[in-house]
Amino acid sequence: MTKSTTHEVSLTTGSQTTEPTAQGTRHNALARIGATARWALAVAACLWLAWCTAVGPLYWNDSSIANFGIVNALFGILAFAIYFFIVMALVRKARRQPVFGWTTNRTTGVRTPRNPIPRSWRTAWGKRLAEFRTSKTGAALRRFGTCCGRWIVRCTNTRWKLALVVAIGLLWVPTTLLAAFGADLRSQAREFSWAWNQWTGLKQPYIGFFSFAPMDIYPTAHYLWPDSPTYLTDQHNILLTLWYGSTLAISRYLTGSNDWGIVLLAAIQWLIAIGCIAATLHRFLNLPWLKRNECIDFAHPERGGRFAATRFSHPERGMRAMLPPQAAHATARVVVLLFFLLCPLAVFSTISLTKSPLFAFAFTWAFGIWYEMYATSGDRHAPAHGMTLQSRFRRLPPRTFLAFLAANIIMLASAKYAWYILLFEFVLAMFADRRHWRAYVFALLVPTLLIHGGISMAINSGLIISGDPIESHGVQLQQIARIAKKAPETIPQSARKKLAPVFNLDQMAEAYFQQDADPVKSSGIQSKKVSYRWRSVTPESMKHFNEAWLETIRANPVVAIDALMAKCFGYFDIADLPYVAMDYYVYNDHVAVNTTWIKYYNANWRAWVANTTRQINRTPVLGWPMHGNFYVILTLLIGAAEVILRRWRALAWHLPLLLLMGVMITAPANNFERHMLPIAFCFMFLCLTFWRDSHATRHTGGLATNTSAHSDRPTD
């Protein structure tokens, strides 16, 4: 109830004003509290990003927050101002308000948007722009732009066209680079090879101090090994290990080396990537669930369905249905396509044989289907992009349901943490989109239970070995190791006794590397430092690990905070260079030295591509769009804006991106780009969704109402 309404009631009804006024007061108070909480959450996100930016220079120099100075504070203040301004600008633009607020003319009283550019400059530019538009050159450029826009939309208005464009644009990757991989692929091949030897009757060393099995490379504690010898583990997801390992084993049997199998795996992943990208592009750019012959322009209802001549010079060829008015325009299509065709994050991931790229492409595929379900959920309060067809509930077509199921299965088969993501998305979907509950149950919940449950049963029955729980303690390991290195005298004696059966503190201190927790937990095969006593540790020893960790960080909280921040700040510091970029998988010793014939195929070209990418990567500011943390930071800012704008249903299918940021923080390494791939791949689509929702929703007094938004009209 507004103030004017309340005042009218008080004048006419007398004693009846008390209850409405009290309700209005309570409503206003709750609204203010809610708005304050939403803005506080956005401020907290900006403060976290600013803090990571401020402490970045300290950890680049292996320093400590104890040395936090005025320069770091200035970096933090500047970063906070920029990030908060971005959030403010997003919110204001979404509410159709000027970014810099309003200004009032003192003489006329007219309110106009405040513009920081001087009026004289704007007047001069306006005159020059008007003169250019009326010139022959300007008119020719307008005609050329219109023609290009029409053809860009026409060449990307179907799924097969988009797949063809992406395939042609990325064809040079598998044909000139063949494949990209690292140590994980070789470990998976080794696991399967040892398992195959066991199945064929070859005796091999198992548990013993002088034996060294594939499970010792990660390593996996011996108490997790079953008594009956087995050599397959769930370290890199057992399904992916079986797929990669069996393919390479067949390659060795037929050709004598892994190389042909590696090339085949890279080609298959490239095809999967093309399919996932094309399907998601089609959903976000063309909105295929809106039937073209039913897309009515409500601004001109007399026009009926939107049709155009197949070819204007040949009217006898009839008419064709046009894209809906809300389909992406030519500029948006070009920007999104250029990201997938030029950004190294996407380009190199198409042939990188490690779990994260495959998970990222499947996640992107599912992200597009989530958007389709969001747009056809039937909630009349949801932004409908100007189309009443979208506010009508629509079940998933069988083909789309099968695609959703396939995307989720690929995610579950590629990354162990996928089941957390899918389960989290299922819970959110039950709150935000209950009308599609059958699709979520059979495409999200059932595959998660079957695949994750099947792997758990295989582990419990002794068929495969579980990944070591120590993998999830990366933050704790780094904190203990940093304290052991920087201030060993502060570790209490009781903590030392509890840690002794699990870790060698001297070796932890020597192996400590602030960017990566793998050395501390004795991962790897070269120069292995036995800081983690995986051969002798027992479950009883691990029971006291958390107690020892708490005692250690209480004794030196400053160094513990240093260890935490040094391990994760790079994911949120836009100026930090990636610890391991995607170009690493293109050119490293595993590819350029330890292969049979791949190392000779376009060796100079492979080296040039990797080195050029690294040089551009290291270019300040210009190299930022090539970094994964660039997209992580902007995604977090867009999420903060959506919280302020109360777009709860959109947040329901965007929150898994936030959960992925939590996965990054707990990952072993800092600023490891392959962990950021899902967020980077979905960022452009996130921007497009935010833009559409902003054009489809008019915010008045904090309440959202649907309006038609025909400004996002493709040139077709």
Q: Provide the structure class.
A: mainly alpha
Helix content: 55-70%
In terms of quaternary structure, what is this? Answer: single chain
Q: What is the number of strand segments?
A: 6
**Count of helical regions:** 27
| Arithmetic mean of pLDDT | 86
Rg computed from alpha carbons, rounded to a whole number of angstroms = 29 Å
| Major sheet characteristics | 2 strands, antiparallel
Neighbour order of strands in the largest sheet: 1-2
Parts with pLDDT < 50 across at least 5 consecutive residues: 1-18, 301-305, 380-391, 698-716
Spatial separation of the terminal alpha carbons: 45 Å
Tell me the strand percentage band: under 5%
List the helices and strands and how they pair.
Blueprint lengths: L2 H11 L4 H43 L9 H25 L7 E3 L6 E3 L5 H16 L1 H19 L4 H12 L1 H5 L6 H17 L38 H18 L3 H28 L20 E3 L9 E3 L8 H13 L1 H4 L7 H21 L22 H17 L3 H15 L4 H24 L13 H13 L6 H7 L5 H7 L27 H4 L2 H11 L1 H12 L20 H4 L10 H15 L10 H17 L3 H19 L10 H20 E4 L2 E4 L10
Helix pairs in contact: 2-3, 2-25, 3-25, 5-11, 6-10, 8-9, 9-10, 10-13, 11-27, 13-14, 13-27, 14-16, 15-16, 15-26, 17-19, 17-22, 18-21, 21-22, 25-26, 25-27
Characterise this structure.
This protein is mainly α and 716 residues long. Among the domains are: 299-323, no CATH class; 469-571, no CATH class. 58% of the residues lie in helices and 3% in strands. The protein contains 27 helices and six strands. The chain has helices at 3-13, 18-60, 70-94, 119-134, 136-154, 159-170, 172-176, 183-199, 238-255, 259-286, 330-342, 344-347, 355-375, 398-414, 418-432, 437-460, 474-486, 493-499, 505-511, 539-542, 545-555, 557-568, 589-592, 603-617, 628-644, 648-666, 677-696; strands at 102-104, 111-113, 307-309, 319-321, 697-700, 703-706. The chain has a two-stranded antiparallel ribbon. Strands 3-4 form a two-stranded antiparallel sheet. It has a two-stranded antiparallel sheet with strand order 5-6. A hairpin with a 6-residue loop joins β1 (102-104) and β2 (111-113). The two termini are 45 Å apart.
